[in-house]
Amino acid sequence: MDRKISLDLAHQHYYLHIPSAQQQALFRCVFAYDALLSSLEQHPDIDLYGYCLFPDGLHLLVLSHKAPSQWLESWLMNYNQWHQETSNETGYLFDDENIHQVLIQPKHLSKTLRHIHYLPIQRKLCSSPEQFLYSSYHDYTGTQNTGVNTDTILAILSPHYGQRLRRFHDFMAVANTENTSIFCTGNHDYYLAYADAHYLLQARSSYQTKLNSTNESEHLIIWQRCVQCLVETSELDIEYWLGQQRHHSLPDAHYLLAWLFTHVAKGPLYIAAKQLGIDETTLTLKINSIHIHHPAKYLRYIERSWKTATV
Q1: Which tens digit of pLDDT belongs to each residue from 49-61?
Q2: Contacts of 108 by beta carbon, 8 Å cutoff, 6+ apart
Q3: The whole model's pTM is what?
Q4: Which of 2, 19, 170, 299 sits 20 to 30 Å CA-CA off 252?
């Protein structure tokens, strides 16, 4: 298959490869590395098990307590905003379309971590993992502490606490024997997952989908309320908010409406796409860039206006 299905499940381990857009530099200074790692350490929805940070991409191994779709996008946006504020640069840093989100079965965690630590060698940046500064290798050897949860994988390598460091060195001394592409595409024919078929079946069957009894007419009522809220809190007519006309002071008014409907009013994306006559992929990208083009203060004002109107 050309495109495998990316599993989006809670309480699962994931290997995430997040490339930069158009080879942009993700880190302009050493403080940028610290800022990103600090945001991962403090994030309530994940445990960080390993990482390797390059100027053109992030490689992360995490335990995701929620489905990645519920935290990954907002986390990337928050770092992007920090980057803009500190570097005075504009634009979105990450290539969302080419993010690899590979589900990892727990028994493959140690091999995935070794793959991540050997990436600098594959890129010919160093000759051994300990020579590369921006990886979790140094957390596992105890020479740094960047918020990585090392206990889980060290316990897999050795049940005896006193032998774990030596066992880690021995394990890392042997280069990967697996095909490296397996960590980016998985070993399953249909899913982006490095796991046994039985494990995938259990993971998917435990995914409880909530029945949504809200019909489309109720979503359309919320859509109309969003439109009315924006018309009342601005000097723009409804045609501008619906994208039927463009106003010079707010040419992306219709994308602001879509952001309000999906992110604040929690309406489904397909309703916004249908009402505006825009495909969902394009609309998602435009919504994601709203924080880039509008100050946070203005967005908070719109959010407060909506909440006040619906009280």
Answers
A1: 999 999 999 999 9
A2: 194, 195
A3: 0.66
A4: 19
The amino acid at residue 42 is Q
Domains in the chain: ranges and CATH:
12-205 (3.30.70.1290), 216-310 (1.10.1750)
Contact 195, 188 (CB under 8 A): yes
Is the Cβ–Cβ distance between 106 and 194 less than 8 Å? no
Question: Cα dist. 159→139, 152, 171, 174 in Å?
Answer: 19, 10, 14, 20
Q: Which pLDDT score is estimated for 206?
A: 66
| Sequential DSSP letters for 250-309 | BTTHHHHHHHIIIIIS---HHHHHHHHT--HHHHHHHHHTHHHHS-HHHHHHHHHHHHHH
Q: Is the pLDDT of residue 246 over 80?
A: yes
pLDDT by residue (tens digit) across 9-23?
A: 889 999 999 999 888
Distance of CA 135 to the CA centre of its chain: 19
Distance between CA atoms of residues 13 and 292, nearest Å? 30
How far is CA 56 from its chain centroid? 16
Question: What is the Rg, in whole angstroms, of the alpha carbon atoms belonging to the chain?
Answer: 22
